[in-house]
Amino acid sequence: MPELPEVETTLKALRPLLLANRFLKVEILRPDMVTDPAKVRRLIKGLRVIEVKRHGKYLFINLEKKLTLILHLRMSGRLAIRRVSEPELRHERIRFHLEKGLILVFNDPRTLGRISLYPTDSLCKHPSLKKLGPDAISVSEKDFLKRLSNRKGILKAVLLNQSFVAGIGNIYTDEACFKSGLDPRRKIGGLSISERRRFYRAIIATLRKGIRNMGTSISDFLGLHGKPGKNQNSLWVYGRKGKLCRRCKTTLKSTRIQQRTTVWCPKCQRKEP
DNA sequence: ACCTACCTGGCC
DNA sequence: GGCCAGGTAGGT
Fold it and tell me: Nearest CA to the C1' of C9 belongs to which residue?
């Protein structure tokens, strides 16, 4: 489900609920989703939330005792808040019991999501986190262009790579490529300077639009309070294989790049300059 | 740069 | 039954 805009949407709803609240206990129904579940259960008890942050598709809940809870929703994960008295969701995997009878639920049909507890001061040493590039919506144009010049390969592969910039997945890659007017199979090295700038602006605009629309709800993304996003109603190419381009009415093409379905408009998205 | 595995559910 | 799915890690 979630890419940067979906995680950001979740973050915005989560922050006011968690700040100054306290974890009372954790129920781990799927231990394989948690790094050292016994430790998490033991250490988190009674800790107050100091801060809630995001980088790329990761969420960070900074706690007292200089500990950070790291969450990644992967493909089908989502966070929900409910009262103890309210009915369970269908795929609750981990429950964080908070004060005031609230439960923060990590819901995830496919159980691919991951949670771990890590010292706040050493996050930059975390084996997965240390590989991440800058957050895709915060990166400056200057930094983006510099990082781009160090990369080879095709546009789609580079955008999906979290060590280039963090937060872009399959939906927003295809959308950003469309917005930039560039064929996702183009090689980085073949881009002119104006195409590189256009690429940067398209990425930022595409992610901002996703956030403004509170995320893309294709099959199962819902916000913290169970509300779907609206971005699925205005996608240019993602999920529209074989349909007509909304801009020029050409039939959209599709192929697989890096084992991911890729859709683009052969007329609006240029192959070579 | 490419696989494949990890899981479950929905759809044909 | 087979194929597909918003992601990442770990292998060659």
Answer: A128
SS3 state of residue A20: coil
| pTM for this prediction | 0.97
Q: How far is the CA of A188 from the C1' of C3 (A)?
A: 32
E strand or H helix that includes residue A48: none
Query: Would residue A209 show up in a list of annotated catalytic residues for this protein?
Result: no
Residue spans of the domains in chain A: they are 4-130, 141-264
Q: Determine the topology of domain A4-130 in CATH.
A: N-terminal domain of MutM-like DNA repair proteins (3.20.190)
Q: Spot the catalytic one: A228, A260, A266, A267.
A: A260
A187-220 pLDDT tens trace: 999 999 999 999 999 999 999 999 999 999 987 7
Residue A184 falls in the annotated catalytic set: no
Say yes or no: domain A141-264 is CATH 3.90.170.10: no
Burial zone of A124 (CB within 10 Å; 0-12 exposed, 13-18 middle, 19+ buried) = exposed
